[in-house]
Design brief:
Largest sheet of chain B: 8 strands, mixed
Strand order of the largest sheet of chain A: 1-4-5-6-7-10-11-12
Helix content of chain A: 25-40%
Oligomer: heterodimer
Distance between the termini of chain A: 17 Å
CATH superfamily of chain A: Aldolase class I
Number of helices of chain B: 7
Largest interface: A-B, 34 and 39 residues
CATH architecture of chain B: 3-Layer(aba) Sandwich
Number of domains of chain A: 1
Shape of chain A: globular
Strand content of chain B: 25-35%
Number of strands of chain A: 12
CATH topology of chain B: Rossmann fold
Radius of gyration of chain B: 16 Å
Order of helices and strands of chain A: EEEHEHEHEHHEEEHEHEHEHHH
Helix content of chain B: 25-40%
Chain lengths: 285, 214
């Protein structure tokens, strides 16, 4: 008996749509977040992450609608991130039906916000998202806005700081790998994981099943967040381009073209693969 | 499912009530989030949910005068479920931030995982397995929350503290985290309470809710 590793589909949201940043190509519309969420729930997801990638005030209500639709149908934990600035934002997202929030920019700008939020909502509700980029000298720096803004904070010491301020978990994105399908950044993930004792969920770079088993074999992380690998599998079976023309770039959705580095899989397929490698996970038989 | 069966979700104004409410809605139970004594007492079942810190929770329970409602509801013999912090609050005392008295409905204490040297990461977050204990206890009870739930089934946990019941017969399941075995649910007469979250544990979790409230 032991704690299972967590396999967590990550759903990036822009307005009403699920989007995916395709490596070097920008955002593509893939479908409706709540439909992907329901499918992933039924397919054995251990949790879900919603990330509002634009997080504009105009689209806040649309995000709350998506959360509450999801929470009525999906009975696993839901973490929501993107644009959370204050205690009221957290309350509103939890009230809509999320279980945890993930915070990046507001934590960097005002680290005491972590302490305040953790004390008010419980440490386990507060996930700190760290977006790390490798520097020429081999160290990693934390960024905000999907890797666009330099913060001057070194990632390992920032991870230690957020732990001491009461964060319950770290969602660690390797920006260099994200969307590439080239594999997870084991060096970064183990540096962070070794330096703290709160759970770490690793994200960015999963392109095939062996990337995930390699990660769990090498680093004692609590879970992995995965987007493209699962999304491409879902859209290969549930392609729906109707009504999306006005909502963004759907060339990708229409073209049926998949990044060559990504070998799509269902969640249950990944879990069976991990179980065969003696990695403890919850499998729907 | 009986539509007339109403469940009170006890609101002590700090934890996330929405998840359990969504689960009860989905299962077709009429339910109300409330801290009103009469509304709680008139329900057929009650849930004490919970996320947050033990001392803050006890303070709110005192301020809202909820202890009489919880105790009277339980002594009436109707099914009462505690979830996560709602399990811990039923115990005599907790060591969270010093020493805080609990509701004292189940004898025992609440302790921090930090006291266990084998445990490397806190909080304990994720899906872990239950081991059924005291099966004869559940068989002789009118309430069978784990009916048709397999031994070793996975449920979702998120916590830094664990309960230590004084009476072993109160322990319904245990769970092992980093080689440390702790009590993950209790069953005592009409009270079932779990450290894991049935409302966040997929179909198996929802099954526990319908097993217990019927």
């Amino acid at each position: 008996m032991s704690l299972a590793v967590r396999i967590i589909p990550r759903i990036d949201i822009k307005g009403p749509n699920l989007v995916k940043g395709v490596y070097l190509e920008g955002l593509r519309v893939l479908g409706k977040p709540e439909e992907f969420a329901k499918y992933y729930y039924e397919n054995g997801a251990d949790e879900l992450i919603y990330q509002d990638v634009v997080a504009s005030l105009y689209e806040r209500n649309s995000l709350h609608d998506i959360i509450s639709k999801t929470a009525k149908e999906v009975f696993i934990p839901l973490t929501v991130g993107g644009g959370i600035r204050n205690i009221e934002d957290i309350s509103n997202i939890l009230r809509a039906g999320a279980d945890k929030v993930s915070i990046n920019t507001a934590a960097i700008e005002n680290p005491s916000f972590i302490k305040k939020a953790s004390r008010k909502f419980g440490a386990s509700t507060i996930v700190i998202a760290i977006e790390a980029i490798r520097q020429p000298d081999g160290t990693y720096m934390a960024f905000t806005d999907n890797g666009r803004n330099y913060t001057g904070k070194e990632a390992v010491s920032w991870a230690k700081e957020v732990e001491s301020l009461g964060a319950g978990e770290i969602l660690l994105t390797s920006v260099d790998q994200e969307g590439s399908g080239d594999g997870l950044n084991i060096d970064l993930i183990s540096q962070i994981s070794d330096s703290i004792s709160i759970p770490v969920v690793a994200h960015g770079g999963t392109g095939k099943l062996s990337h995930v088993s390699d990660l769990f074999a090498k680093v004692p992380v609590s879970g992995v967040a995965i987007a493209s690998l699962f999304h491409y599998d879902y859209i290969s079976m549930n392609r729906n381009t109707d009504g999306y023309e006005k909502e963004g770039n759907i060339d990708f959705l229409k073209s049926n073209r998949i990044l060559s580095t990504i070998q799509p899989s269902t969640i249950n397929g990944l879990k069976k693969y991990l179980k065969d490698k003696n990695i403890s996970c919850r499998v729907n038989e | 499912m009986n539509k007339d069966y109403k469940i009170a979700v006890i609101d002590y104004q700090m934890s996330n009530m929405f998840s359990i409410k969504n689960a009860l809605d989905r299962l077709g139970y009429e339910n109300e989030v409330t801290s009103d004594y009469k509304k709680i007492m008139s329900a057929q079942g009650a849930v004490l949910p919970g996320v947050g810190s033990f001392p803050d929770a006890m303070e709110n329970i005192k301020a809202l005068n909820l202890a009489p409602a919880i105790k009277d509801f339980i002594s009436n013999g109707k099914p009462f479920m505690g979830i996560c912090l709602g399990l811990q609050l039923l115990f005599s005392a907790s060591e969270e931030f010093g020493h805080t008295k609990g509701l004292g409905i189940i004898e025992g204490t609440v302790r921090n995982f930090k006291s266990q040297p084998s445990i490397e990461r806190i909080p304990h977050v994720g899906w872990n397995q239950i081991k059924k204990m005291n099966l004869s206890n559940e068989d002789s009870n009118d309430h069978r929350p784990l009916d048709q739930i397999m031994d070793n089934e996975y449920f979702y946990f998120v916590h830094s503290y664990f309960v230590c019941p004084e009476n072993e017969e109160d322990i319904l399941t245990t769970t092992t985290y980093d080689d440390f075995e702790f009590c993950s649910s209790v069953l005592s007469k009409n009270v079932f309470a779990s450290q894991f979250h049935p409302e966040k544990s997929g179909d198996k979790g929802l099954k526990i809710l319908t097993n217990f409230f019927k």
